[in-house]
Amino acid sequence: MKKLSKDKQQKLLMIGLLTAGALIALWFGAVSTQQASLKNLAKRKTDSEQKLREVKQTIANADKIETELGETGKQVAKLEEGMASGDLYYWAFNTLRQFKSNYKVEIPQFSQVDGPKEVSLLPKFPYKQLNLTVAGTAFFNDLGKFIADFENQHPYFRILNLTVEPAGFSGGDHEKLSFKMEIAALVKPGAP
Fold first, then answer.
1. Is residue 26 part of a domain?
2. Helix-strand-coil percent breakdown of the chain, rounded to 5?
3. Which domain CATH number covers 151?
4. Which residues in the chain show pLDDT less than 70?
5. Considering the domain boundaries, does residue 120 fall inside one?
6. Is residue 73 located within the same domain as residue 97?
7. Using one digit for the tens of pLDDT, what is the confidence trace for 64-107?
8. Range of the domain at 92
């Protein structure tokens, strides 16, 4: 470079700077955008592979899921067999009478059945509900066992608004309680 004239040295320096500028512009303009595009494609490929694995897993489990669905359907059908249908008052009266035969609980008062009507707890629930009020007498422990066993053995029944007070007998049963409770029961779909 020492043998070149000052003018040629400046031109050569200018060409070098312009070439370096062009290379930098080319890097930022083309290469870096291509690298970003390649990273984006790699991420999309990884996501697609993950979705493909999930779909393959779902397909592999389809038979298992279908079997579980069938078993669950059978369980629901079995539970529906015990739900209210036909003459709702007779059904409720008979179900309570049969159940209470194993307990020292007297239930002489039954109200009329209110329902079937829409279930107020859950919207768009496929079952309807009936309500019935019963009253009777029992000792505290007997009533507690009766209520616990009743709800455990009949999952489509719920006891609501239970009121308990002393029975007020003048005889020897001054420890007896008088109770009143609402019973809500699910009605089998298609029942009147």
1. yes
2. 55, 25, 25
3. 3.30.70.60
4. 1-2, 82, 84-86, 120-121, 169-174, 190-192
5. yes
6. no
7. 888 888 898 888 777 777 676 667 778 878 888 888 888 888 88
8. 88-187
